[in-house]
């Protein structure tokens, strides 16, 4: 007991463990994600006119605007998550800004560093399209170029915004009731394309209105008869806004006929699509530059392959003609357009190769066979952008950024994959810890031995050891390099070998599921390497997975989703499906041994059920007082080892912890009373053990809470009407059996007690609470976990406004900190310091240090192989993983231990001994031979 | 530089909505142009806080701020900033005219203090007020790894004790030899009397006989501090 106390004491007295500079970026990893990029809003662009290198800009499906360095895939800058997924991003030529329209917010960003240049918002409407006015009266404007915004879903119309300030120059209001579709500009005129739907149903006509760029006045308007084919916006294909000849194309439902109109003319050219196979989708690719050749490419996707046709526009005759065809290739692929001066090049990206053709003729300028990458195995490119360097008559270099079907955004440089970004991980909604196969199988085998009789168990064991001997030669072979690596401190701990020979248990798999139904496994110990990644839809065809929730069971995970009729079972090491029969056989026996209580929130009351599934009859219900609404409940984690049942005081007496495995913390709020109440409920009996209310609380903000060991904490935002203080509070409460030291409360030392059938007055915990003012809002909190629970815990809180995750040492938020006086010597020896009402988050507590982890939804922690260390994994928009040692790494040598110095010291001592030995020997001989006086 | 400020003018159309700007000046501590683009300011009153990201001109533009009292916080990766209290009120420009205008006032505020406990004023004015915000200090995220230094090695009490013993063992005989006979005799006399020794022997013995195991197990020679013996025995049983 005192050993623990001494350890805990040492941990408390020592300052909180922070991250060492040489550990940062090694023990932790961060995926700074944007989300899957949108095709029409992804482009290469120079951040300023004189820049040598270009950046890759995109707006993602969740409305985040970002710039990526195409060299290494590192994030240069990104905006906060947008209000809606309907985002547009454009950049004018030779501009130092990019302009975005996400939802109703239009903003210009400094292209090189992502600072806001100006921003404006449209009241009561949403930006439907955005274009840059490249030329005015045929002259390119080199100053800040103006933006054109198409406004819809409210007051429809077109607005021209000043490129320098974002001020509205003019507004064209469309009161006809048409559905706005696109805005496009030619050197002299602006075109506003809308869908005119007749009142009596049927197809829609496309109406093109030309506007004066200077005044925004309507110049002309005509309709194209497209009733036969077009019914919704999705039927129209559009390409080449801001080109010399912007075009409008549409097809019929069966994709048999392609109709193309050059905007500004009334003629419609009709082309038959390739008839060999039924076409699933048609995409138009046209260059984006005003001075490029008026050529465009039509991509046809069929069920088994893809092909394309290239068309030329004759500007004098306003005629469109087919120039050449690109042959049908089996498998999926995509096309990208790039321009150099006026020349237009089309890049075809397939999973195996990248090829480039010029728009003028069908001769292949360059072809590169792609070196596969394990992260792209089995995936095909969905859409991409490309940059081509053409010298003479051949393409000398190409780089293309393509989004692959497995959600990886990859840059293909000539024939190699330069980088991949796992953008699909953005939008992770659920994650659980799973164990690696090695541990799993060893545990399994040990259990097998446990169940067999002595002889067969012995044979099994010998066999197992013999099997292990197989690995001995390889192990011996690796030994020198491992020793050398550890001495020089250059061991690279991110190989697969290391995962298998993981002595410290840092390598743990996290299985995560995204809202799009993609399941993947990440190794937290090796920089978040993606071990496998699968699409759940392949196991449940036709199901729409929207919010999967995971549960880890031994060797597999259970996936539940409202869109799934029955849960899926996925092997956690391979990502393959397990039949539910097999899964049930594996895990049901465990359930009989433990009696579980499940909770359900229904009709404003919390109900407790016996067993794993909510049964018909609740064992107990907890109803909050009238006017209060339960918003969340937090149970003590099922796996929560406690090393010591008491807390040793400075005078060596003991305060006994109230350790009840069935505690549930219920948070309820009253909107009218601006009150938040906390109820501590015993989930076995449903009895209320403790309650606390806070007044003047902003109940519209989240109240995160967590429970560990014998203490719980929660955080709330104070309401603006509160006069006493403003900001955010963190409240910590600790439960003890009795307020007196060396006392175990009414239950005393009785051997058995029950909370369900209390014979006398049930023991209620003695609660010590303390609140602290904190500088920032907390969105989520959890507690570190270690194997035995000896190491002091750390409260891990997520701060959404500063994009960080902070580990608050337990000693700082100890509710027993003396208030209003200095700590006595005895209290000091416990590690208690005088209470201060404010806790400022020390930058050294930040687990994320210089990373900025945005949009964290949840943080999960797990024990590692070492008692000192807990693994942390945060997910949401970004993915972040690290390991923390709240009481320092007392059981492992850190990087600060200089092995070379130690070896040198030993060598120096040895040399010293060699020198001194003759001296000593001579002295001994002399002493023997000297005659005593 | 400040063009962006004027850009926002047409937006403040709502009657009781103020706009103001928080600006980071160029100080010896921080060059605001070096701050990351994720630097942003929040205004918290009730409900979701208002948010503004840093602009190219190193400022945060707030538009359409309704009447209320706000806690302004600046979140930066590299620097800590002081929090501010910003009040937006509607006041009559000329008394009795009935023409109400927004008034913005900013003060220093102190976390954990009463809200009315305001600090130094940081500006007061109508719409478009520019409030300067001061960075407090840079954020140091990393812990220094204690390197090896001979001085810190010498500061170790174990090493000091060892060195002292070494000096006593080797140095004392020399000292005794070099003493003049009178002092020596005096010193020996003193030792016989036990001025130096007598006090020590007992302590030394105590230290030698110290039972670490029993100390760790909680055995004490001194009578129990707790006057009631019963809970004491209970506690020991469980501990």
Automatic annotation (TrEMBL), chain A:
> What Pfam families does UniProt report for this protein, alphabetically?
Beta-prop_EMC1_N (PF25293), EMC1_C (PF07774)
By its UniProt entry, which InterPro entries does this protein fall under? Beta-prop_EMC1_1st (IPR058545), EMC1 (IPR026895), EMC1_C (IPR011678), PQQ_b-propeller_rpt (IPR018391), Quinoprotein_ADH-like_sf (IPR011047), WD40/YVTN_repeat-like_dom_sf (IPR015943)
Listed transmembrane segments: 902-920
Cross-referenced SMART domains, in alphabetical order?
Answer: PQQ (SM00564)
The region annotated as signal peptide is: 1-18
The UniProt keyword set, sorted, is:
Endoplasmic reticulum, Glycoprotein, Membrane, Signal, Transmembrane, Transmembrane helix
Family stated for the protein in its record:
Belongs to the EMC1 family.
Q: What is this protein called?
A: ER membrane protein complex subunit 1
Q: What is the lineage of its organism?
A: Eukaryota, Fungi, Dikarya, Ascomycota, Pezizomycotina
TrEMBL record, chain B:
Q: Where is the composition biased (Polar residues)?
A: 198-211
Q: Where is the signal peptide?
A: 1-17
Region (Disordered) residue spans? 195-239
Q: Say yes or no: keyword Ligase present.
A: no
**Pfam families in the record, alphabetically?**
EMC7_beta-sandw
| Residues in ER membrane protein complex subunit 7 beta-sandwich domain copies | 31-161
Presence of keyword Metal-binding: no
The record's Gene Ontology cellular component field reads: EMC complex
InterPro entries under this entry? Beta_sandwich_EMC7, EMC7
Q: Where in the cell is it found?
A: Membrane
Which UniProt keywords are listed?
A: Membrane, Signal, Transmembrane, Transmembrane helix
Residue spans crossing the bilayer: 158-176
Predominant location? membrane
In what way does this protein cross or attach to the membrane? Single-pass membrane protein
What name does this protein carry?
A: ER membrane protein complex subunit 7 beta-sandwich domain-containing protein
């Amino acid at each position: 007991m005192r050993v623990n106390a001494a350890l805990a004491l040492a941990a408390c007295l020592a300052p909180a463990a922070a991250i060492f500079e040489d550990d940062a970026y090694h023990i932790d990893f961060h995926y700074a994600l944007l989300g899957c990029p949108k095709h029409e809003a992804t482009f290469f662009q120079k951040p300023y006119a004189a820049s040598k290198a270009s950046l890759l800009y995109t707006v993602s499906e969740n409305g985040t605007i970002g710039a990526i360095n195409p060299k290494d895939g590192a994030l240069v800058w990104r905006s906060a998550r947008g209000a809606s997924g309907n985002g547009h991003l454009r950049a004018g030529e030779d501009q130092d800004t990019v302009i975005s329209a996400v939802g109703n917010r239009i903003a210009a960003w400094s292209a090189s560093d992502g600072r806001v240049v100006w921003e404006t918002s449209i009241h009561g409407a949403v930006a439907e399209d955005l274009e840059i006015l490249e030329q005015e009266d045929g002259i390119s404007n080199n100053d800040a170029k103006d933006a054109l915004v198409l406004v819809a879903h409210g007051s429809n119309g077109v607005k021209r915004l000043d490129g320098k300030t974002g001020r509205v120059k003019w507004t064209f209001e469309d009161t006809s009731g048409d559905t706005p579709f696109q805005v496009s500009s030619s050197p002299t005129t602006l075109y506003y394309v809308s869908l005119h739907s007749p009142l009596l149903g049927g197809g829609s006509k496309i109406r093109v209105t030309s506007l004066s760029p200077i005044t925004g006045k309507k110049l002309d308007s005509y309709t194209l008869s497209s009733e036969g084919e077009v019914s919704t916006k999705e039927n129209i294909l559009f390409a080449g806004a801001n080109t010399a000849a912007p075009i409008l194309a549409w097809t019929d439902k069966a994709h048999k006929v392609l109709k193309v109109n050059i905007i500004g003319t009334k003629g419609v050219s009709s082309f038959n699509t390739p008839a060999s196979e039924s076409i699933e989708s048609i995409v138009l690719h046209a260059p984006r530059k005003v001075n490029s050749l008026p050529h465009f490419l039509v991509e046809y996707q069929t069920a088994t392959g893809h092909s394309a046709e290239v068309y030329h526009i004759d500007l004098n005759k306003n005629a469109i003609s087919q120039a050449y065809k690109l042959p049908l290739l089996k498998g999926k692929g995509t096309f990208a357009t790039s321009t150099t001066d006026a020349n237009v090049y089309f890049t075809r990206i397939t999973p195996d190769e990248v090829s480039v053709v010029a728009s003028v003729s069908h001769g292949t300028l360059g072809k590169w066979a792609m070196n596969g990458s394990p992260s792209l195995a089995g995936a095909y490119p969905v859409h991409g952008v490309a940059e081509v360097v053409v010298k003479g008559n051949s393409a000398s270099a190409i780089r293309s950024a393509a989004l692959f079907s497995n959600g990886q955004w990859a840059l293909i440089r000539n024939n190699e994959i330069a980088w991949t970004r796992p953008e699909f991980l953005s939008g992770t909604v659920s994650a659980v810890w799973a164990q690696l196969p090695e541990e799993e199988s060893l545990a399994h085998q040990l259990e097998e031995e446990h169940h067999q009789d002595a002889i067969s168990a012995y044979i099994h064991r010998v066999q197992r050891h013999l099997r292990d001997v197989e690995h001995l030669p390889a192990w011996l072979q690796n030994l020198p390099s491992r020793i050398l690596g550890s001495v020089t401190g250059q061991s690279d701990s991110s190989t697969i070998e290391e995962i298998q020979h993981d002595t410290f248990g840092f390598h743990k798999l996290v299985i995560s599921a995204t809202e799009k139904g993609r399941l993947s496994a990440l190794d937290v110990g090796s920089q978040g390497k993606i071990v496998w990644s699968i699409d759940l839809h392949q196991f449940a065809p036709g199901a729409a997975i929207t919010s999967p929730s995971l549960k880890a069971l031994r060797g597999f995970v259970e996936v539940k989703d409202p869109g799934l009729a029955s849960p899926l079972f996925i092997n956690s090491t391979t990502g393959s499906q397990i039949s539910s029969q097999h899964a049930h056989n594996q895990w049901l026996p465990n359930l009989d041994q433990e009696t579980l209580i499940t909770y359900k929130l229904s009709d404003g009351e919390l109900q407790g059920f016996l067993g794993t599934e909510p049964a018909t009859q609740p064992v107990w219900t907890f109803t909050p007082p009238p006017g209060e609404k339960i918003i969340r409940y937090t149970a003590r984690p099922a796996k929560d080892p406690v090393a010591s049942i008491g807390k040793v005081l400075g005078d060596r007496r003991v305060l006994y912890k109230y350790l009840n495995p069935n505690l549930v913390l219920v948070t309820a709020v009253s909107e009218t009373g601006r009150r938040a109440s906390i109820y501590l409920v015993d989930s076995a009996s449903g009895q209320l053990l403790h309650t606390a209310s806070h007044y003047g609380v902003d109940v519209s903000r989240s109240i995160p809470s967590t429970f560990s060991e014998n203490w719980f904490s929660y955080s709330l935002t104070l309401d603006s009407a509160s006069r006493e203080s403003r900001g955010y509070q963190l409240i910590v409460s600790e439960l003890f059996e009795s307020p007196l030291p060396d006392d175990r409360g009414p239950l005393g030392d009785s051997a058995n007690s029950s909370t369900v059938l209390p014979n006398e007055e049930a023991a209620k915990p003695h609660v010590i609470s303390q609140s602290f003012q904190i500088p920032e809002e907390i969105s989520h909190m959890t507690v570190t976990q270690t194997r035995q629970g000896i190491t002091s815990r750390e409260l891990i809180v997520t701060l959404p406004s500063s994009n960080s995750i902070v580990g608050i040492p337990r000693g700082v938020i100890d509710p027993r900190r003396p208030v209003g006086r200095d700590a006595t010597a005895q209290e000091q020896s416990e590690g208690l310091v005088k209470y201060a009402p404010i806790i400022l988050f020390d930058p050294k507590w930040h687990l994320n240090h210089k990373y900025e982890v945005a949009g964290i939804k949840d943080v999960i922690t797990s024990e590692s192989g070492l008692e000192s260390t807990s693994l942390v994994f945060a997910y949401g928009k970004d993915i972040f993983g690290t390991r923390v040692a709240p009481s320092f790494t007392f059981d492992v040598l850190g990087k600060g231990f200089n092995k070379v110095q130690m070896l040198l010291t030993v060598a120096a001592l040895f040399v010293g001994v060699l020198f001194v030995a003759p001296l000593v020997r001579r002295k001994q001989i002399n002493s023997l031979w000297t005659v005593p006086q | 530089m400040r063009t962006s400020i004027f850009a926002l003018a047409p937006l403040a159309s709502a009657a009781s909505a103020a706009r103001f700007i928080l600006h980071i000046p160029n100080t010896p501590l921080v060059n605001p142009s070096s701050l990351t683009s994720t630097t942003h300011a929040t205004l918290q009153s009730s409900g979701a806080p208002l948010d503004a990201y840093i602009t190219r001109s190193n400022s945060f533009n707030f538009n359409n701020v309704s009447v209320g009292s706000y806690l302004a916080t600046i979140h930066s990766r590299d620097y800590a900033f002081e929090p501010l209290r910003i009040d937006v009120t509607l006041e009559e420009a000329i008394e009795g005219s009935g023409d109400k205008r927004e008034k913005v006032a900013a003060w220093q505020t102190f976390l954990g203090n009463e809200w009315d406990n305001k600090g130094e004023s940081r500006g007061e004015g109508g719409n478009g007020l520019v409030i300067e915000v001061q960075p407090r200090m840079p954020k140091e995220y990393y812990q220094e790894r204690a390197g090896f230094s001979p001085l810190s090695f010498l500061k170790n009490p174990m090493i000091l004790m060892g060195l002292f013993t070494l000096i006593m063992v080797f140095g004392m005989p020399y000292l005794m030899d070099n003493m003049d006979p009178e002092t020596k005799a005096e010193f020996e006399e003193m030792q016989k009397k036990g001025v130096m020794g007598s006090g020590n022997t007992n302590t030394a013995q105590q230290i030698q006989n110290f039972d670490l195991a029993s100390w760790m197990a909680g055995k004490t020679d001194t009578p129990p501090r707790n006057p009631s013996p019963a809970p004491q025995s209970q506690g020991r049983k469980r501990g």
